[in-house]
Amino acid sequence: xxxxxxxxxxxxxxxxxxxxxxxxxxxxxxxxxxxxxxxxxxxxxxxxxxxxxxxxxxxxxxxxxxxxxxxxxxxxxxxxxxxxxxxxxxxxxxxxxxxxxxxxxxxxxxxxxxx
Amino acid sequence: xxxxxxxxxxxxxxxxxxxxxxxxxxxxxxxxxxxxxxxxxxxxxxxxxxxxxxxxxxxxxxxxxxxxxxxxxxxxxxxxxxxxxxxxxxxxxxxxxxxxxxxxxxxxxxxx
Lengths: 115, 112
Prior knowledge:
The complex is a heterodimer. Chain A is mainly beta. Chain A contains no helices and 12 strands. Chain A has strands at residues 4-5, 10-14, 19-21, 24-25, 31-38, 44-50, 56-58, 64-68, 73-78, 87-95, 104-105, 109-114. In chain A, a hairpin with a 5-residue loop joins β5 (31-38) and β6. Chain B is globular and about 35 Å long. By secondary structure, chain B is mainly beta. Chain B has no helices and 11 strands.
């Protein structure tokens, strides 16, 4: 069965620090990839997505992610975090043509940005 | 405004008392699903629906039922809730199963 791993469970950064959150998935075929963000007390919102094309994807609020097929990875980055980026971040994968009709989510990474 | 609406937002109930959490979307999406979110486990899919009258089990369907009589609505039914169903529940919809999902605000359920 496919799985999604987010190895960083809790990350604490100071404002202006750079961020990289890891995401690895287990499926070897074609995938759609997503990063969602959940601000405290709110629902999940899409940060960015990759379906095909340029493996470097830019999303909202200065976030970007790079799809590296050979590493089965889709890491999320931001050059300079702000206090308002404090949230939980979820990587999600949709493995195409497997018959599985669902997103598989990672367990999430809680980011805490200190002013 | 495009949105997915869940009700109620918060619910405390007792073991065995049937309950329904409603979900409605106004985007004419075909695909809808229910997830539960538990600490350290991320989101796990409970049930999904590809279209009206087409539903199927996700990863954790035990103890839940769903129905899809209309395209916009996808209620989650707990016939006999148990304490292990205490969780945060999210409804989501998307145009197809392979496109961006839009999530509702969540329903925090406590079963005592």
